Structures are given as structure tokens and as C-alpha cells.
From TrEMBL:
Domain HTH tetR-type: 20-80
Origin: domain of life: Bacteria
Protein name: TetR family transcriptional regulator
Record-linked PANTHER family: HTH-TYPE TRANSCRIPTIONAL REGULATOR RUTR, MYCOFACTOCIN BIOSYNTHESIS TRANSCRIPTIONAL REGULATOR MFTR-RELATED
Matching Pfam families: TetR_N (PF00440)
InterPro entries referenced in this protein's UniProt entry, alphabetically: DNA-bd_HTH_TetR-type_CS, Homeodomain-like_sf, HTH-type_TetR-like_transc_reg, HTH_TetR
Keywords per UniProt: DNA-binding, Repressor, Transcription, Transcription regulation
Gene3D superfamilies linked: Homeodomain-like, Tetracycline Repressor, domain 2
Gene Ontology MF term list: DNA-binding transcription factor activity; transcription cis-regulatory region binding
Residue spans binding DNA: 43-62
Length: 205
């Protein structure tokens, strides 16, 4: 007898795809409203209406408005960890993280991402959670490095992940405070940050 209590894999795939599409639609609607009106001025009711979902559906996907922004910012994690894994075998860990950072920034740094970062910095409720985002990103970077370099001392890889994500945070702040920079300046700016980072670390030896 056929077990009708189990959902066929094809249907499970469609269900998951629909959930991803709904989540993305809610996030896109929310980010558009946040950038247009400011974070605090936007209500969950407005987001739900713009995304054509119920308020209850919004909370099925996001516990609070803040989580929409944090989830949107997490788009950087995948490209970064994938780039770490994709490097040549001869590449050292320090070379891998610099190349991966350049690759990930090239894929995710857009005028919208800069606007969202400015929104976060100007909104206390979001800025307070920004540090947690960097902690999670540091953990994911360490995991990617450890998976690629299992022969390396894990403590050394954790320290490398820590200083690189710290450089990302400070570099982002410096970028935001420097007038006249354009998206095409990202590679040279990133190289500059890493040159300064490696130079300062070399002085500690």
C-alpha cells in the first residue's frame, strides 16, 4: 500500500522553493521601504502589504523587522566561504582570505548594500546587532578555512579569521566615511586595507 502520509520529494522541492521565494519577496519589500522611509518609520503591516502577505506570514519568516536586515546582510557569507574553498591548491591561508574577500566584495558590494550599511549605522536597534553579524561571519570564515586547510593549527586559522573580519568591519567604516569612492574603487581599496593589515602584523614579529 502506498504511504500517502509522506510528501513526494518533488512536492517538497516545490514547497521549499515557494518558501524561499516568499522570504525573498518579504525581504525585498522591507529593504525597499527601509531605504525609502527609514527603519523606524516602517511598520510590519506596511511590509506585509507591500510583499502581498499577511502579517502572520511575515512573522513566520522573520521574528522582527531587525531580522530582515540581518538576513539581507548575510548574503555576503556564502560568496566569501565559497571563494575560500575555490582557490588553487598551492594557495596559503593568508592568500586565500584576501582573494576570497576581493571575490565576495565584487559580487555583493552594490549601491544598495552601501545604503543598507549606512541605514544600519544610523539606527541604534540595528547597530547593536551588527556586532553579532560579524561574530557569525568570523565563525563561518574559520569553518571554511579549517575545511580547506585541515592540516593547519585551528587556533591559527581562528586568529586569521578574527583579524580578517575585523579588517572588513573597519574597512567598511573607513569606506563609508571617505567621500568620492565608487564601486569600481573596491579592489584597490581592499588591497590597500590588506597591505596595511599584513604590514602591521609583520611588525609584531
Amino acid at each position: 500500500m502506498k504511504d500517502v502520509s509522506r510528501t513526494p520529494p518533488a512536492l517538497e522541492g516545490r514547497r521549499e522553493r515557494k518558501r524561499r521565494e516568499t522570504r525573498a519577496r518579504i525581504a525585498d519589500a522591507a529593504i525597499t521601504l527601509f531605504l525609502r522611509k527609514g527603519f523606524t518609520a516602517v511598520t510590519v503591516d506596511e511590509i506585509a502589504e507591500a510583499a502581498d502577505v499577511s502579517k502572520r506570514t511575515f512573522f513566520d519568516y522573520f521574528p522582527a523587522k531587525e531580522d530582515v536586515v540581518i538576513a539581507w546582510q548575510d548574503k555576503f557569507t556564502g560568496p566569501l566561504t565559497e571563494a575560500v574553498a575555490a582557490g588553487p591548491q598551492s594557495e596559503a591561508p593568508v592568500q586565500a582570505v584576501e582573494r576570497a574577500m576581493l571575490d565576495a566584495l565584487g559580487k555583493t558590494a552594490t549601491p544598495e548594500s552601501f545604503a543598507i550599511h549606512a541605514l544600519v549605522q544610523g539606527t541604534p536597534a540595528l547597530a547593536a546587532r551588527e556586532q553579532h553579524k560579524y561574530v557569525l561571519l568570523e565563525t563561518r570564515l574559520f569553518e571554511a578555512l579549517h575545511a580547506r586547510y585541515p592540516q593547519e593549527n585551528p587556533l591559527g586559522l581562528r586568529l586569521l579569521a578574527m583579524v580578517v573580519i575585523g579588517a572588513l568591519r573597519i574597512g567598511t567604516e573607513e569606506w563609508q566615511s571617505t567621500e568620492g569612492l565608487k564601486p569600481e574603487d573596491i579592489p584597490s581599496f581592499t588591497h590597500k586595507v590588506f597591505r596595511m593589515l599584513w604590514r602591521q602584523l609583520a611588525k609584531l614579529r
